Structures are given as structure tokens and as C-alpha cells.
Amino acid sequence: MSKLKVFSLDSPIGTLRGAVGPRGLLALTLRQDDAAYFQRLVAKRAPKAELEEVPAEQTKAGRQLAAYFGGSRAKLSAAVDLRGLTEFTQAVLEHTCGIPRGQTLSYGQVALAIGRPGAARAVGQALHNNPVPLFVPCHRVIGAKGSLTGFGSGLPIKQALLALEAGENPF
């Protein structure tokens, strides 16, 4: 049975909840009202894990998130654990990790880049189910015509994250 460190962190976009295992961050939620969703996500990703609540600063991911929202860190680079996800989802998430801060790609561009042209909707679904947002910056994937579409935590948060990465202070 693996042991996960579970943390909460208040941020300008609400309470973040994360779970870190031996291979890295395997769950992160952004919504203020998602304690039950977080529990379901952790149970799905690591069904038999023992959970240990720790302060966010006791994890690399928690420290990086605090610095990111505090303005002293531009890139989140803690290890993420994508095991158990489909090959397609892993390809989408891994490609999304390569989108630089301040830049965006469309769902179709991601689909083309992973060798699945025409799979833009499937890319959107994979990103909707991204278990580690921010570290896999799904907010950087937008509609074909530049529109902000789809984001599990709501379009205002997606817009705020993109503004933050563009050097604005959206909070």
C-alpha cells in the first residue's frame, strides 16, 4: 500500500488540494467546493493508498504552487505521476506540458502534434479529465479561433491563469 501526502493551499483561485505519491503529484483540484471531488479523484488514482495530511510546504508541489501564486515562480516543475491513464490521455497531457508559459495551442493543434488529426474533441475530453492541472497546463489549450472554451474549474479561472502568465495581475 502506497502512502500519499495530501495538502490544501489557499490561492487567489480558491483552495487547491493535492496528493503526492512516491512518483510525484497524482491529483490536484482547483475548485473551492471540491473536497468530495478531490476524494473521488484520489481514490480513483490510488485506490488503496494511505493518506497523510501535511502542510503544503512539506511537498515540492505545494511549495511551487505557493511561489507561483505569490509571483516568485514562473514555472511549475514538480514531478507528476500519470500512470494508469490511457496512452492517448498521457500523450495529450505530456504534449500540453510543453506549451510555454504565456503561449497557447488549440485543441486541434494538440491533436495534430500527437499524431491524431481530427481528434480535437477527444483532446478536450482528455484535458477536461486532467488530474494535475497547472502542472499540466491545460488552461493553455484554447478553441480553434482563439476563444476560451472548456475548463473544469470555469472559464473565469482559465482567463485569470492566462492573464497571470501574460504578466497581468488578474486577482
Low-confidence stretches: none
Radius of gyration: 15 Å
Shape: globular
Order of helices and strands: EEEHEHHEHHEH
How many domains make up the 3D coordinates?
Answer: 2
Number of helices: 6
Helix proportion: 25-40%
What proportion strand? Answer: 15-25%
Mean pLDDT rating: 93
Largest sheet: 4 strands, mixed
| Strands in their spatial order, largest beta sheet | 3-2-1-4
CATH topology of the largest domain: Arc Repressor Mutant, subunit A
Spatial gap, N to C terminus: 40 Å
Question: What's the CATH architecture name of the largest domain?
Answer: Orthogonal Bundle
What does this structure look like?
The protein is α/β, with parallel strands linked by helices and 171 residues long. The protein folds into two domains: 3-70, Double Stranded RNA Binding Domain (2-Layer Sandwich), CATH 3.30.160; 87-165, Arc Repressor Mutant, subunit A (Orthogonal Bundle), CATH 1.10.10. 35% of the residues lie in helices and 18% in strands. The chain contains six helices and six strands, in the order βββαβααβααβα. The chain has a four-stranded mixed sheet, sandwiched between helices. The chain has a two-stranded parallel sheet with strand order 5-6. α4 (107-113) packs across α5.
